[in-house]
Amino acid sequence: MANILIAGCGYIGTALGSLLAAEGHTVWGLRRRPAILPPDIRQCAADLTSPGTLCALPPALDYIFYTAAPDTHDDVAYRAVYVEGLNNLLDALIRQRQHPRRLFLTSSTGVYAQTSGEWVDETAPAEPTEFAGILLREGERLLLDGPFPATVLRLGGLYGPDRAGLIEKVRRGEVVGGGESPVYFNRIHRDDAAGALRHLMMLQQPDSLYLGVDDEPTELIVVLRWLAGALGVPPPWQAESSPLRMPRHGSNKRCRNVRLTASGYAFRYPTFREGYAALLTEQAGAC
Ligand SMILES: NC(=O)c1ccc[n+]([C@@H]2O[C@H](COP(=O)([O-])OP(=O)(O)OC[C@H]3O[C@@H](n4cnc5c(N)ncnc54)[C@H](OP(=O)(O)O)[C@@H]3O)[C@@H](O)[C@H]2O)c1
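That is the input. Now the predicted structure with NAP docked in place:
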Protein backbone atom coordinates (compact mmCIF):
# COMPACT_ATOMS: atom_id res chain seq x y z
CA MET A 1 0.00 0.00 0.00
CA ALA A 2 1.23 3.49 -0.82
CA ASN A 3 1.69 6.68 1.20
CA ILE A 4 0.03 9.44 -0.83
CA LEU A 5 -0.15 13.24 -0.55
CA ILE A 6 -2.83 15.22 -2.36
CA ALA A 7 -1.71 18.86 -2.41
CA GLY A 8 -4.70 21.16 -2.88
CA CYS A 9 -7.19 18.52 -1.77
CA GLY A 10 -10.46 20.04 -3.03
CA TYR A 11 -13.16 18.83 -5.40
CA ILE A 12 -11.12 16.29 -7.40
CA GLY A 13 -8.57 15.74 -4.67
CA THR A 14 -11.16 14.66 -2.12
CA ALA A 15 -12.87 12.27 -4.56
CA LEU A 16 -9.46 10.81 -5.44
CA GLY A 17 -8.40 10.61 -1.79
CA SER A 18 -11.50 8.70 -0.75
CA LEU A 19 -11.10 6.33 -3.71
CA LEU A 20 -7.50 5.56 -2.73
CA ALA A 21 -8.20 5.36 1.00
CA ALA A 22 -10.97 2.81 0.33
CA GLU A 23 -8.33 0.62 -1.34
CA GLY A 24 -6.19 0.73 1.79
CA HIS A 25 -3.66 3.43 0.85
CA THR A 26 -2.65 6.06 3.39
CA VAL A 27 -3.88 9.39 2.03
CA TRP A 28 -2.92 12.86 3.25
CA GLY A 29 -4.90 15.89 2.11
CA LEU A 30 -2.92 19.14 2.12
CA ARG A 31 -4.85 22.42 2.11
CA ARG A 32 -5.13 25.59 4.18
CA ARG A 33 -8.39 24.42 5.79
CA PRO A 34 -8.00 20.64 6.15
CA ALA A 35 -10.62 20.32 8.89
CA ILE A 36 -13.33 20.01 6.24
CA LEU A 37 -11.79 16.87 4.73
CA PRO A 38 -13.65 13.58 5.25
CA PRO A 39 -12.30 11.30 8.00
CA ASP A 40 -10.73 8.80 5.57
CA ILE A 41 -8.24 11.49 4.44
CA ARG A 42 -5.56 12.53 6.96
CA GLN A 43 -5.24 16.25 7.49
CA CYS A 44 -2.13 18.17 6.48
CA ALA A 45 -2.51 21.90 7.16
CA ALA A 46 -0.23 23.99 4.93
CA ASP A 47 -0.23 26.90 2.51
CA LEU A 48 1.55 26.05 -0.74
CA THR A 49 2.46 29.69 -1.21
CA SER A 50 4.17 29.85 2.18
CA PRO A 51 7.31 27.63 2.17
CA GLY A 52 7.62 27.68 5.96
CA THR A 53 4.35 25.76 6.30
CA LEU A 54 5.71 22.92 4.13
CA CYS A 55 8.56 22.05 6.53
CA ALA A 56 6.90 18.98 7.96
CA LEU A 57 5.34 17.06 5.10
CA PRO A 58 4.30 13.49 5.88
CA PRO A 59 7.47 11.35 5.54
CA ALA A 60 8.21 8.64 2.96
CA LEU A 61 5.68 9.74 0.36
CA ASP A 62 5.27 7.36 -2.59
CA TYR A 63 2.96 9.44 -4.79
CA ILE A 64 1.96 13.09 -4.85
CA PHE A 65 -0.97 14.62 -6.69
CA TYR A 66 -0.93 18.39 -7.19
CA THR A 67 -4.60 19.33 -7.57
CA ALA A 68 -4.59 22.85 -6.11
CA ALA A 69 -6.60 25.57 -7.81
CA PRO A 70 -6.39 29.35 -7.38
CA ASP A 71 -9.08 31.22 -5.46
CA THR A 72 -9.48 33.90 -8.12
CA HIS A 73 -9.16 34.15 -11.90
CA ASP A 74 -6.20 36.49 -12.16
CA ASP A 75 -2.53 36.44 -13.02
CA VAL A 76 -1.26 36.78 -9.44
CA ALA A 77 -3.41 33.96 -8.03
CA TYR A 78 -2.59 31.60 -10.94
CA ARG A 79 1.15 32.25 -10.62
CA ALA A 80 0.98 31.73 -6.84
CA VAL A 81 -0.63 28.28 -7.16
CA TYR A 82 0.56 26.78 -10.44
CA VAL A 83 4.15 28.07 -10.42
CA GLU A 84 5.26 29.31 -6.98
CA GLY A 85 3.23 26.80 -4.93
CA LEU A 86 4.40 23.88 -7.05
CA ASN A 87 7.99 25.11 -6.85
CA ASN A 88 7.71 25.41 -3.06
CA LEU A 89 6.45 21.84 -2.79
CA LEU A 90 9.26 20.48 -5.00
CA ASP A 91 11.81 22.37 -2.89
CA ALA A 92 10.31 21.00 0.32
CA LEU A 93 10.46 17.42 -1.03
CA ILE A 94 14.11 17.87 -2.00
CA ARG A 95 15.03 19.44 1.35
CA GLN A 96 13.28 16.62 3.20
CA ARG A 97 15.15 14.06 1.04
CA GLN A 98 11.96 12.47 -0.14
CA HIS A 99 12.01 10.16 -3.17
CA PRO A 100 8.45 9.87 -4.43
CA ARG A 101 7.88 7.39 -7.22
CA ARG A 102 5.89 9.92 -9.23
CA LEU A 103 4.15 13.31 -9.05
CA PHE A 104 0.93 14.05 -10.92
CA LEU A 105 -0.34 17.51 -11.87
CA THR A 106 -3.90 18.32 -12.92
CA SER A 107 -3.52 20.88 -15.68
CA SER A 108 -6.21 22.00 -18.12
CA THR A 109 -7.20 21.72 -21.77
CA GLY A 110 -7.16 25.52 -21.53
CA VAL A 111 -3.47 25.32 -22.51
CA TYR A 112 -4.58 24.69 -26.11
CA ALA A 113 -5.32 27.92 -27.93
CA GLN A 114 -6.70 26.28 -31.10
CA THR A 115 -9.77 28.13 -32.36
CA SER A 116 -11.17 26.22 -35.36
CA GLY A 117 -12.81 23.24 -33.69
CA GLU A 118 -9.90 21.02 -34.75
CA TRP A 119 -9.12 17.71 -33.04
CA VAL A 120 -6.33 17.99 -30.48
CA ASP A 121 -4.28 15.32 -28.76
CA GLU A 122 -1.11 15.21 -26.63
CA THR A 123 1.07 15.84 -29.71
CA ALA A 124 -0.74 19.05 -30.72
CA PRO A 125 0.94 22.39 -30.01
CA ALA A 126 -0.07 23.85 -26.64
CA GLU A 127 0.67 27.53 -27.10
CA PRO A 128 -1.69 29.47 -24.87
CA THR A 129 -2.13 33.17 -25.43
CA GLU A 130 -3.84 34.21 -22.19
CA PHE A 131 -2.45 34.26 -18.65
CA ALA A 132 -4.22 31.18 -17.22
CA GLY A 133 -2.97 28.83 -19.93
CA ILE A 134 0.48 30.43 -19.96
CA LEU A 135 0.93 29.93 -16.22
CA LEU A 136 -0.43 26.37 -16.33
CA ARG A 137 2.13 25.59 -19.06
CA GLU A 138 4.84 27.09 -16.86
CA GLY A 139 3.75 24.81 -14.01
CA GLU A 140 3.70 21.79 -16.33
CA ARG A 141 7.27 22.51 -17.48
CA LEU A 142 8.45 23.06 -13.92
CA LEU A 143 7.13 19.65 -12.94
CA LEU A 144 8.22 17.73 -16.03
CA ASP A 145 11.74 19.24 -16.00
CA GLY A 146 11.99 18.71 -12.25
CA PRO A 147 13.84 16.12 -10.17
CA PHE A 148 11.05 13.50 -9.89
CA PRO A 149 9.23 11.26 -12.37
CA ALA A 150 6.09 13.17 -13.30
CA THR A 151 2.87 13.03 -15.27
CA VAL A 152 0.52 15.83 -16.31
CA LEU A 153 -3.20 15.22 -16.85
CA ARG A 154 -4.85 18.04 -18.83
CA LEU A 155 -8.48 18.04 -17.73
CA GLY A 156 -11.51 19.36 -19.55
CA GLY A 157 -14.26 21.26 -17.72
CA LEU A 158 -15.27 19.45 -14.56
CA TYR A 159 -18.85 18.62 -13.69
CA GLY A 160 -20.41 16.28 -11.17
CA PRO A 161 -22.06 16.35 -7.74
CA ASP A 162 -22.22 19.94 -6.42
CA ARG A 163 -21.06 21.21 -9.83
CA ALA A 164 -24.18 20.69 -11.85
CA GLY A 165 -25.54 24.22 -11.90
CA LEU A 166 -26.44 23.82 -15.56
CA ILE A 167 -29.29 21.47 -14.60
CA GLU A 168 -30.98 24.11 -12.43
CA LYS A 169 -30.49 26.79 -15.07
CA VAL A 170 -32.14 24.64 -17.74
CA ARG A 171 -34.93 23.70 -15.35
CA ARG A 172 -35.65 27.38 -14.71
CA GLY A 173 -35.36 28.30 -18.41
CA GLU A 174 -32.52 30.67 -17.61
CA VAL A 175 -30.03 29.61 -20.27
CA VAL A 176 -29.49 30.70 -23.80
CA GLY A 177 -27.10 28.75 -25.98
CA GLY A 178 -25.82 28.61 -29.47
CA GLY A 179 -24.66 31.03 -32.06
CA GLU A 180 -24.13 29.98 -35.64
CA SER A 181 -20.68 28.44 -35.71
CA PRO A 182 -20.12 25.45 -33.44
CA VAL A 183 -18.00 26.00 -30.33
CA TYR A 184 -16.96 22.74 -28.71
CA PHE A 185 -16.63 22.15 -24.99
CA ASN A 186 -14.49 19.36 -23.56
CA ARG A 187 -15.59 17.97 -20.21
CA ILE A 188 -15.03 15.22 -17.70
CA HIS A 189 -17.08 14.02 -14.76
CA ARG A 190 -15.39 14.44 -11.38
CA ASP A 191 -15.37 10.68 -10.77
CA ASP A 192 -13.59 10.03 -14.06
CA ALA A 193 -11.02 12.73 -13.29
CA ALA A 194 -10.33 11.00 -9.96
CA GLY A 195 -10.56 7.54 -11.57
CA ALA A 196 -8.10 8.48 -14.31
CA LEU A 197 -5.58 9.80 -11.77
CA ARG A 198 -5.85 6.60 -9.76
CA HIS A 199 -5.46 4.57 -12.95
CA LEU A 200 -2.31 6.48 -13.95
CA MET A 201 -0.85 5.91 -10.50
CA MET A 202 -1.30 2.16 -10.94
CA LEU A 203 0.53 2.04 -14.31
CA GLN A 204 4.11 0.73 -14.26
CA GLN A 205 5.42 3.40 -16.62
CA PRO A 206 2.87 6.12 -17.41
CA ASP A 207 3.58 8.70 -20.10
CA SER A 208 4.41 12.23 -19.08
CA LEU A 209 1.23 13.71 -20.57
CA TYR A 210 -2.42 12.69 -20.98
CA LEU A 211 -5.62 14.46 -21.94
CA GLY A 212 -8.39 13.91 -19.39
CA VAL A 213 -11.62 14.44 -21.31
CA ASP A 214 -14.60 12.23 -22.06
CA ASP A 215 -15.35 10.65 -25.46
CA GLU A 216 -17.47 13.44 -26.88
CA PRO A 217 -16.53 17.10 -27.20
CA THR A 218 -19.93 18.73 -27.58
CA GLU A 219 -21.46 22.09 -28.35
CA LEU A 220 -23.10 23.53 -25.28
CA ILE A 221 -26.47 23.87 -27.03
CA VAL A 222 -26.51 20.09 -27.55
CA VAL A 223 -26.05 19.51 -23.81
CA LEU A 224 -28.69 22.12 -22.96
CA ARG A 225 -31.24 20.55 -25.32
CA TRP A 226 -30.53 17.07 -23.98
CA LEU A 227 -30.99 18.32 -20.41
CA ALA A 228 -34.23 20.09 -21.34
CA GLY A 229 -35.52 16.84 -22.88
CA ALA A 230 -34.53 14.85 -19.79
CA LEU A 231 -36.17 17.41 -17.49
CA GLY A 232 -39.30 17.77 -19.66
CA VAL A 233 -38.94 21.56 -19.96
CA PRO A 234 -38.92 23.71 -23.13
CA PRO A 235 -35.60 23.61 -24.99
CA PRO A 236 -33.28 26.61 -24.70
CA TRP A 237 -33.24 28.85 -27.74
CA GLN A 238 -30.37 29.83 -30.00
CA ALA A 239 -28.94 33.30 -29.68
CA GLU A 240 -26.14 35.03 -31.49
CA SER A 241 -24.63 36.25 -28.27
CA SER A 242 -24.71 34.28 -25.04
CA PRO A 243 -22.53 34.38 -21.94
CA LEU A 244 -22.40 30.59 -22.16
CA ARG A 245 -21.34 30.58 -25.78
CA MET A 246 -17.55 30.57 -25.46
CA PRO A 247 -15.19 28.80 -23.06
CA ARG A 248 -13.49 31.34 -20.80
CA HIS A 249 -10.15 30.97 -22.59
CA GLY A 250 -11.85 31.68 -25.93
CA SER A 251 -10.51 28.56 -27.65
CA ASN A 252 -12.47 26.07 -29.70
CA LYS A 253 -11.11 22.57 -30.10
CA ARG A 254 -12.08 18.93 -29.72
CA CYS A 255 -9.80 17.02 -27.37
CA ARG A 256 -9.15 13.30 -27.84
CA ASN A 257 -8.73 10.86 -24.97
CA VAL A 258 -7.15 8.07 -27.04
CA ARG A 259 -3.89 7.92 -25.07
CA LEU A 260 -5.74 7.60 -21.78
CA THR A 261 -8.17 4.93 -23.02
CA ALA A 262 -5.35 3.04 -24.81
CA SER A 263 -3.55 2.88 -21.45
CA GLY A 264 -6.52 0.89 -20.14
CA TYR A 265 -8.76 3.50 -18.52
CA ALA A 266 -12.48 2.76 -18.95
CA PHE A 267 -14.70 5.80 -18.47
CA ARG A 268 -17.56 5.48 -16.02
CA TYR A 269 -19.30 8.37 -17.79
CA PRO A 270 -18.10 8.25 -21.43
CA THR A 271 -20.22 11.26 -22.46
CA PHE A 272 -22.24 14.04 -20.83
CA ARG A 273 -25.38 11.91 -21.29
CA GLU A 274 -24.33 9.19 -18.83
CA GLY A 275 -22.84 11.78 -16.47
CA TYR A 276 -25.85 14.08 -16.33
CA ALA A 277 -28.28 11.13 -16.31
CA ALA A 278 -26.57 9.89 -13.12
CA LEU A 279 -26.75 13.38 -11.58
CA LEU A 280 -30.47 13.65 -12.44
CA THR A 281 -31.09 10.24 -10.87
CA GLU A 282 -29.20 11.30 -7.72
CA GLN A 283 -31.23 14.53 -7.55
CA ALA A 284 -34.50 12.63 -7.97
CA GLY A 285 -33.46 10.21 -5.21
CA ALA A 286 -32.67 13.12 -2.88
CA CYS A 287 -36.17 14.61 -3.25
N1 LIG B 1 -12.70 23.08 -12.38
C1 LIG B 1 -12.53 22.76 -13.65
O1 LIG B 1 -13.45 22.78 -14.49
C2 LIG B 1 -11.15 22.38 -14.11
C3 LIG B 1 -10.91 22.21 -15.47
C4 LIG B 1 -9.65 21.84 -15.88
C5 LIG B 1 -8.64 21.62 -14.95
N2 LIG B 1 -8.89 21.81 -13.63
C6 LIG B 1 -7.79 21.62 -12.67
O2 LIG B 1 -8.12 20.62 -11.75
C7 LIG B 1 -7.51 20.89 -10.48
C8 LIG B 1 -8.47 20.71 -9.34
O3 LIG B 1 -9.63 21.43 -9.56
P1 LIG B 1 -10.74 21.44 -8.44
O4 LIG B 1 -11.97 21.95 -9.08
O5 LIG B 1 -10.75 20.12 -7.72
O6 LIG B 1 -10.17 22.54 -7.45
P2 LIG B 1 -10.87 23.10 -6.10
O7 LIG B 1 -11.98 22.28 -5.64
O8 LIG B 1 -11.06 24.54 -6.29
O9 LIG B 1 -9.74 22.76 -5.03
C9 LIG B 1 -8.59 23.45 -4.95
C10 LIG B 1 -8.05 23.17 -3.57
O10 LIG B 1 -6.82 23.83 -3.52
C11 LIG B 1 -6.65 24.27 -2.18
N3 LIG B 1 -5.75 25.40 -2.23
C12 LIG B 1 -5.86 26.55 -2.94
N4 LIG B 1 -4.82 27.37 -2.68
C13 LIG B 1 -4.03 26.70 -1.79
C14 LIG B 1 -2.83 27.01 -1.15
N5 LIG B 1 -2.22 28.20 -1.31
N6 LIG B 1 -2.29 26.10 -0.30
C15 LIG B 1 -2.89 24.91 -0.08
N7 LIG B 1 -4.03 24.55 -0.68
C16 LIG B 1 -4.60 25.45 -1.52
C17 LIG B 1 -8.04 24.67 -1.69
O11 LIG B 1 -8.22 24.39 -0.31
P3 LIG B 1 -8.04 25.54 0.84
O12 LIG B 1 -8.87 26.71 0.38
O13 LIG B 1 -8.52 24.87 2.09
O14 LIG B 1 -6.58 25.83 0.86
C18 LIG B 1 -8.93 23.71 -2.47
O15 LIG B 1 -9.33 22.65 -1.68
C19 LIG B 1 -6.93 22.28 -10.59
O16 LIG B 1 -5.54 22.16 -10.81
C20 LIG B 1 -7.57 22.85 -11.80
O17 LIG B 1 -6.77 23.76 -12.48
C21 LIG B 1 -10.11 22.16 -13.19
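Residues 3-163+188-216+253-270 form a domain with the Rossmann fold fold (CATH 3.40.50.720).
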